Structures
1.
Amino acid sequence: SDQQGADPRSPIDGLQSNNIRRDESITNITSDYGFNFKWTPNDQWGFQFDAQHVDSKVDVLSMGIWASTFQNAAITLNGNDLPTVLFSLPGNGLTPTPCVTFDGNCPSYGQGVNNNLSSPYNSFWRSAMDHIEQSEGTEDAVKFDVEYKFGDDTWFDSVKAGVRWAERDQTTRFSTYNWGVLSEIWGEGGPVWMSDRIDGVPNAGGLPGTTGTDSTAIAMLNGFPNFMRGQTPLPTGTDSRLFYGDNTAVNYKAASDFALSVGDEWRARNGANGCAQNWVPLAMRCNVVAGSPFLPQEINPVNEVNKAAYVVARFKGDMGAARVSGNIGLRYTTTTREADGFQAFPNINFATDAECAIVPPGEQPTPFCALTPAVRASARLWANGAV
């Protein structure tokens, strides 16, 4: 339904807006357990033992669905006061150009009974994006100290020694922000409008579907009440905008299923390589780890072990009329850290031999095409993972 297609609806003029409904659910839980034991059997000896265990977990689910409308924007600067912004239907001036026959020169956007930006006829589903984090970590630590105190008849005050051990084990699972198209004005005859019936089967030329149901039931009008606390007029005026109307995080599956149906209505879900060319949920991407929504490069386990030991001697005494005190000690520490992960590179599509054979007049072959056919073939095999 671009203005040159079977459904000439997309307007020629107007700024495109993103009407985004986005929800996020975040859970952070940290538990900390500690134990301390002290023992002083006499005035000279002292012992102390400490242990600690910490575990932490983070769960994040974020999901957004973009809708879109077209509008003109008139901006009035008011000196030191807030500017006034007014959105209106696109066309010549602030009103659409009336016409009887809709075509590429006079799209149907905002015409007739749909001459307002609250109409589902004038909004389409544009894109979606989800993000998931499922991370956890634990830390265990122990320490043991022993101290011996000397009497007053020596320069030595006390000697103290101890050992430390701590291990931190964590796994970060942090997905990309998985943006993908649902429908657009630039392909497949135009986007999936909110007034279009959706059955998951693309129609040739962008004509609205004839089976299924439209998405008006899931769309919600938002009029932005108390905009700027009433200090400036509402840019949308009386034309509230349509947004996805459900909590996308709480009802993630329902939102995902709806977004998939819109994408399937617009064009085939997968491209020639068998992977998604429209938005799909994180767990449906190619090459995710089985049973998870994460790619290998989105999972990063880290283990760290710290060990330490020390001994310190304290002294005090008189040097003439002066009272002196101090200490001397030695400390040894070691840290071992192990981390796993993957580095991913985007797929590279090298030119085919047929494409290399076509060199525009006055141009030179690209550096890749200047290689021998055997080297080019080897590079393609490497790029697609065959070797």
2.
Amino acid sequence: MIYLHKILPLIFSPLMLVIGLIILGIIFNLRKFSLIGVIVLILSSLPIISNKFIAYLEKDYQPIEISEIENVDAIVVLSGMIRVIGDEENLKYEFTIP
């Protein structure tokens, strides 16, 4: 019971639902389920669509201006590559996955 909060998000995650559709299609010989699962997986993996999903999720959380950030002793960045976004006057640095 204590690990239920860790297992439920995995079961109901979009990737697990797609894999479930594919497995149901294979087990019950329903090509429509397998095809829908593969199409959803491919479409959601495309950068054009995945970037739209990420932009939709991040639209309520605008970047914080550097002048608004408090002084601290240390900063830990858990990320990968850096990507520059914005126009020439207002550059923002965003950490991305390689």
3.
Amino acid sequence: MIQWAVLLLTLLSLGILIVKKPLWLIPLLGAAVALEISSTWYPDLGILEKVLGEVSLTRFTSISIILAAFLRLFFEVEIRARLAAIFKDPVTLLLLLYIACGALSLVYSADMGNTVKETLRLLVLFAVFLSIALLLDQDTILLPFHGIHLAALALLPLALYEGISGNLIWQGENLLKEHTLRVNTTFVDPNIYARFLVLGIVANFVLQIFTHNRRVKLIYWACLPLLLIQLLLTGSRGGILTLGMVLVLALFFLPNKKNILGFLGVCALGAGVLLLIRPE
């Protein structure tokens, strides 16, 4: 009964946002991606669940973004003009080419059903990308980065709780079998959590590039160690390696190289400490 109430509340809230505040759906998607645990919030939807795939807040929010853009496509001339421009963009053409290659692989696929399923999944992801591009403008283009960055920071208290107490709020029966504690907070797996944190750090750097207020930049720099602490608690070597690669690339693109080198040094020190504590 509670799950049905949560489902109804979710759909009602998203419906209001589709009509009244479609832009709010975009940062909400960043938070929804972080809430993989939301797949346990909803009831079994039977055939509908087989069509939609795993029922989660991410899936509902993605569909809501597509619907919000689709509605505005009918009623706003500016949105239709923007759609034509997006389809001329090289990035859009490359994505369409990638999806077309996936569809052509049906010819030699060993599992045609799975190939069709994955191709449809790519089309949905492309529709989400297209919808976000239609809803955003020059003044709101950083909303997705704000959503991911804030969602990553919001997980810090839960990560610290799991790291200190040793209690995992989800998937503990599987993850606590490992020799070392690796926090996963609201994610099904610590490695997925680590990848999301790397996205949060990348979002932090992007926001710094487009921020000219020195005080705000200092706040962003102060947030980086909070994200790094979470990354270390995941115990994900792949995540830390990915972060190292991101930071090396940041040296070439961000103007403040001294700060990046300092943060890179802190990351290297943290990785060294992690290897000493958990050599296995």
